[in-house]
Structure formats: C-alpha cells, structure tokens
Amino acid sequence: MAVGMSLKGDEVGQYNYSKKITLFVVLSCMVAAMGGILFGYDIGISGGVTSMDSFLKKFFPKVYRRMKEDAEVSNYCKFESQLLTLFTSSLYVAGLIASFVASVITDSFGRKPTIIVAGIAFLAGSGLGGWSYNVYMLILGRVLLGVGVGFANQSVPLYLSEMAPPSLRGAINMGFQFSVGIGVLMATLINYGTQKIEAGWGWRISLAMAAAPASVLTVGAIFLPETPNSLIQRGTDHEKTKKMLQKVRGTDNVQAELDDLIEASNTSKTTRKPFKNILQKKYRPQLVMAIAIPFFQQVTGINVISFYAPILFRTIGLGESASLMSAVVTGSVGIVTTFLSMLSVDKLGRRTLFMSGGIIMFVKGWSYIVLILICMYVAGFGWSWGPLGWLVPSEIFPLEIRSAGQSITVAVGFLFTFIIAQTFLAMLCHFKSGIFFFFGGWVLVMTLFVHFLLPETKNVPIEQMERVWQGHWFWKNAVRGDASNEVI
User: Fold this and answer.
1) How many alpha carbons lie under 13 Å from residue 331 in its C-beta half-sphere?
2) pTM confidence score
3) Which residues have C-beta within 8 Å of that of residue 348, sequence separation ≥ 6?
4) pLDDT given at position 430
C-alpha cells in the first residue's frame, strides 16, 4: 500500500450526502469567520504599534532610547526587551488557558455560545487596550483579547467544518484562515494610517479598532444557528435536528447524514472523559496530528513575520512608515494565496498543498531577510500551512473527542506561539539573519512528515473520517481497522 493512501474519488460517492451550498450556510459561516478577522487583527496590530515611536516612548522608553540614541547597539538588538515581547505573547498564554475552558462550554452548551463569549471578550480587550495609560492596562487588555482568541479558535473551525457539506468543507473551513489574513491586512493598513497622526496617539485607534469586527461577531453570533452535530450531541430531538439539517443542506434528502450523526452521538455518549479517552491507542493518529500540525505551523516562523514584520524591516534600515508599508505588502500576498488555496483544496487535496507550500517556504528559510523572499514565504504559508493548519485538525476527530482534540490543537498552537513570540527578539539579537536557518530546517522536517504520515481527507464526510486512518499504511495498525473496512 502506497504512502498516504486515502479514499478514491469514486468511493466518496457512496455517501448519500447533499453537495449543495445554501445561502443559509454561507451567511452563517461568514459571521462565524469574523472570529478569524479578530484573530488576524490582534496578530497584526501588535507588530505595527510596537514599531511606532510614540507607542515605544510611552510604554517602553528603554527600547525607544536604545533605538534612537545608542549607536553602538546592533540593529538586531535594539528591540530586545522581555517586557515588549510580553505585550505580544501575553495574548497567547491567555488563549492557551481559555481554550480548555472553551472546550467544556462547546461540549455542554454548543458552538454558538462559545463564539458569543469570544466576541464579548474581544470587545472588552479592545476597549481596555485603546484606553491604556500604563503598561499593566495594556497587557491586561491583551490578556482579555487572548481569552477571546482562545474561545474563537476552539469553536469557529469546528463550526465551519460541521456546517459545510463534505465536498466543500475544505474551502469553507479555509474561510477562517482567509479571515485571519484579512484581519492582519486590516491591522497593517490601520497602523500605516495611524502612525502618521502627529499628535502621537494613533496607536490608541489601532488597538481600539478591534471593537468593530468584535461587535459584528458578538451581535451576529446571537442569530447563528447551532450545528446539527452539536444539536445531536447535546440530546436534541432527532426530528428537530433533521429539520435543521434540511435547512442547512437545502434538501429533504438528509437521512444518510442524520444516521451518521446519530451513530456518532451514541458513541460520544459513552465517552465521559474525552481528554482521557483521546489517549487511547485507537485515537493515536488524531492525537499525533493535534500536536504535530499546530507545532509545525508555529515553527515555520510565520508569526515572526506576523508579529514583528515592521520591526524586522526597521532592522534592515527601513524607516517607520516604509516598514509598515512593507508589512502591508506581505499581508496582501498572504490573502491572495490563501484565496487561491480555498479554490484548490477540495480538488487538489490537503497533502498536495501541504507539500508544495513547504517547498516554497523552504526557499525563504535559507535566505536573508529581504522583502521579495519574505513575500515568497508568506505565499507558501498562505497556500498551505496557514489554512490547512486549521482545516485538517478540525475535520479529523470523531464526535466523542472532537472538542477535546480541538482544544489540544489550539493549546499546542498557543504554547509554541508564546514561546516564539517571547524569545524571537532575543534570538534575533544573538543569531541575526542566521535565525532563519532554524526555521528553514523545520520546514523541511514538516514537509517530510506530511508526505509519510498524513492521509488525504478531501471529500470524506466528517463522521466517516476514521476510514482514512484504517486505509493508511502506517496508522492502520494503531486504529486496528480490519481488512473489510480498509480503503484505498
């Protein structure tokens, strides 16, 4: 059996699932994906404001004086400050902790309430950040934003995967990463504009503007329908769930999908401790992916670009305004390539995008920091590990461990995001441009990981996903699939 075998295209047709995409689903997913815009905005805004002279002068005067007055300090070291990196990374510590709380709420009350809590936390964090008068208020605002990110990242990818028909699940779920890219670009454009406010309070606008998409998410989430998967999981009457499924799919012929949901729900009810049960051998491949994919997504070095692009551009001699505009260019490249990935993922498959994107990023990993090569890298990430890093984990877990698996995915991502955000400026100071050899090496490792260990999941119904593991050359022994259930 060849490496990475999965269901053949004609075998997918055995599932009598509707392939229609309804306006109801589109509007619901657009509202839910606003969580991605907020996540991207919070990522992009921190790197921009920390490169603004007025912001540094008010909150990080030692960094400001070193940048302006100390000619003996290398450009690579002028921004080194644990307090400055704490401003960026505090969001991800809070998100890590919040993701586990969000898992309980998602299981007990549904995906919709979790998204509402995320919106409220975003509103509180953006308000406090915009009104901050000392560094403690500033960091507390970031912590509240981290709570919002933890709840949104736990619930939104699940919501999108469960609402989407199998044939379009990749494109719809990638709407989350596409929204993240929009949020990053919005943040860099706003930073570019507010930096020009001569009074020196433009950073307040940058931090407070997160309230706009947060308001849309919070209000819009109130009107979101709950996913049929969640309704079944929480014991909703089967007839009511069927009506919701018919509305979501735009057809009365939903019995096959409903039967799979009921079967998955019955299995999930026997699993009272999902975090303990996910350690069982039969869930080994899903657990490995829940840890490996977010880990690899972070050690690509993407958040070095997302958090510190303006600072990186300043270290190579660009001015304050030019560095922010360069960040706008890289953000635009990311959005375009993510959109192309959305159009391609359900035709080319997850593995093809993962590996081709890894090759593109590897080129940048062994190069110096110049704008054109950073754009190449962002293009590779936007084509592959950016959107797929959210898509694949959200679709591979059976219902009984789905929330627990998503929480582990989010928590691992936050953990390594925090580590990289907190250590990068010090690493940049000591290793200089050689730091990117480190990230380039990881890109090679993760591309080989995908080639050998990740099966293809395109067009497979979410409640039938165990079949891809039963047919994989390596994982079939772990899940103990018998020969009659193996697929090619």
Assistant:
1) 33
2) 0.71
3) none
4) 78
Distance, in Å, from the CA atom of 233 to the CA atom of 36, rounded to the nearest integer, reads 25
Residue 159: C-alpha distances to residues 115, 230, 423 (Å): 9, 9, 33
pLDDT tens digits, 13-68: 445 566 677 887 888 878 877 888 888 898 778 877 887 888 888 898 888 887 77
| Per-residue pLDDT at 12 exceeds 60 | no
Residue count of the chain, please give it.
488
CA contacts within 13 A on the Cβ side of 32: 31
Token pair in block for residue 407: 């929480």
Reading phi first (left if > 0) and then psi (alpha if -120 to 50, else beta), residue 480 is in: left
CA 408/CA 100 separation, integer angstroms: 8
**pLDDT at residue number 124:** 95
The one-letter amino acid at 486:
E
Rounded-to-integer distance, Cα 2 and Cα 213, Å: 46
For 276-319, give the secondary structure using H, E and C.
Answer: HHCCCHHHHHHHHHHHHHHHHHHHCCHHHHHHHHHHHHHHCCCC
Confirm whether 4 is domain-assigned: no
Closest alpha carbon to 37 in 140, 126, 112: 126
Distance, CA of 79 to CA of 70 (rounded, Å): 12
- Separation between Cα atoms, residue 167 and residue 13, nearest integer Å: 10
Helix 135-163 × helix 23-32 angle, to 10°: 160
Please report whether residue 147 resides in a domain.
yes
Among 52, 184, 64, 212, CA closest to 127: 212
Instruction: Report the chain's terminal Cα–Cα distance, integer Å.
Output: 8
Comparing CA positions, the residue from 205, 26, 211 lying closest to residue 119 is 211
- Residue 14: CB atoms within 10 Å: 11
Q: Examine residue 1 and state whether it is found in any structural domain, yes or no.
A: no
Query: Could you give the number of structural domains in the chain?
Result: 1
Q: What phi and psi values does residue 199 have, to the nearest 5 degrees? A: -70, -15
Tell whether 291 is covered by a domain: yes
| Cα(108)–Cα(87) distance, integer angstroms | 33
How far, in Å, CA of 390 to CA of 394, rounded? 6
CATH number of the domain residue 374 falls in: 1.20.1250.20
Is residue 54 within 8 Å of 194, Cβ to Cβ? no
Enclosing domain of residue 275: 9-485
